[in-house]
Amino acid sequence: MFKPLEIFVGLRYTRAKRRNHFISFISFISIAGIALGVTALITVLSVMNGFEKELRTRILGVASHMVVGSAANGMDNWQTLPPLLESYPQIIGQAPFIRAEGMLTAGEGVSGALIRGVSPEFEPQVSSLDQQMKLGELTDLRSGGFNIILGQELARRLGVMVGEKVTLVTPQASVTPVGIMPRLKRFTVVGVFEAGMHEYDSALALIHLDDAAKLFLKPGQVSGLRLKLTDMFDAPYLTQLMVQDLPRGYVITDWTRQHVNFFRAVKTEKMVMFIILTLIVMVAAFNIVSTLVMVVTDKRADIAILRTLGASPGCIMRIFMVQGVVIGAFGTLLGLIGGVSLASNVEKIVPLIEQLMGRKFLSPDVYYISDLPSEMLFSDIAVISLISFSISLLATLYPAWHASRTQPAEALRYE
């Protein structure tokens, strides 16, 4: 693209001391602006990636990568399904469950709840609930014991602790001599978990699979099978494959569909932040335009001499493009160094700033995620670098074109 002469003269104009030091100052501001914009982009996107990964991990710690259910109310003969699913190498865990809704009461405390009947033997294969127990163990759920494990916020709302009783009221009704009465059952609280997601901590309650089958009148049935994959991002592809392979009557969903609104919102926020921070780079690019316009004005005599020596308009244009490219490349490089360094150490820098200021930015009493996680993606860094350099290159076109239009006779008339 650039010939040796054009690169030599362009770099010389970039390095040479100018009579107008204001031009050098604007060049410095341009480099600093581009570097600041690239640093901010890399850091903010890395932190947002970290938050997205942390939230996804917490959601899938309680939810599952995939769920195989039935179009009917429950799945009969569900024991025949696990051998079919073992033929898929992507599936590394299976667990049956029963899903229902109910109302929990304890003293004056009343709260609606999502009841999940689980098997303590298989549940650790598909979730991390056994690792999120604050009190008790998942294995404390025993068949026929009618024990229950509550989310931390749900237990706090009901005002109960381990060892105390709660009453579960189910939507199913029983016919008695005095009329139709709701089905009630007393459960003993044997554990409390904290998933780190308000949706689960405030509404989810776990009971044993056999107890759920008795209580919700589903003998020998389950709501479905929860699956865990080697790579969660294989879920959409595997869902389509299983729909074609499995017999009719099964309903298959994955985590991308169950929480589609949440992840779509996160993606939208990332895009908006990317656009806003890119404006910083664009402002710096306007400084490049100002710098080159003033350089062209300052070098009109030099341009005229080069034209009389045989330099073509295209050659003149590329000479001044070299200067803009150098400013853009140098600013982008500094931004990459700053952004990668800051994003890599944000988890150490933020606690230090909090210690110096004597306050917590993300208070654990308010936010479930009290630290700033960070995850740098090479794709983000590559896109940011490409956009930053492209904006810098585009900013050089008009001033360089204006320089190429300089007429030697007009420029040298008053020299």
Question: Care to describe what's here?
Answer:
With 415 residues, this protein is of the alpha+beta class. The protein folds into two domains: 4-57 and 262-412, no CATH class; 65-256, no CATH class. It has 14 helices and ten strands. It has helices at residues 4-15, 21-62, 81-85, 152-158, 198-201, 209-215, 235-245, 255-258, 260-298, 300-308, 313-357, 378-395, 397-404, 408-412; strands spanning 66-70, 91-106, 109-118, 133-135, 147-151, 165-176, 179-193, 204-208, 224-229, 250-254. It has a six-stranded mixed β-barrel. The chain is elongated, with a radius of gyration of 32 Å. The two termini are 33 Å apart.
Keywords for this entry:
415 residues, alpha+beta, 2 domains, 6-stranded mixed β-barrel, 14 helices, 52% helix, 20% strand
Number of strands: 10
What is the C-alpha radius of gyration, as a whole number of Å? Answer: 32 Å
Strand line-up in the sheet with most strands: 2-3-8-5-7-6
What sequence of helices (H) and strands (E) makes up the elements?
Answer: HHEHEEEEHEEHEHEHEHHHHHHH
Main beta sheet strand tally, sense and closure: 6 strands, mixed, barrel
Total helices: the number is 14
Query: Which shape, going by the Cα principal axes?
Result: elongated
Secondary-structure-based class equals alpha+beta
The mean pLDDT is: 82
User: What distance separates the N and C termini?
Assistant: 33 Å
Instruction: Tell me the helix content.
Output: 40-55%
Query: Are there runs of 5+ residues with pLDDT below 50, and where?
Result: none
Percent of residues in beta strands? 15-25%
The structural domain count equals 2
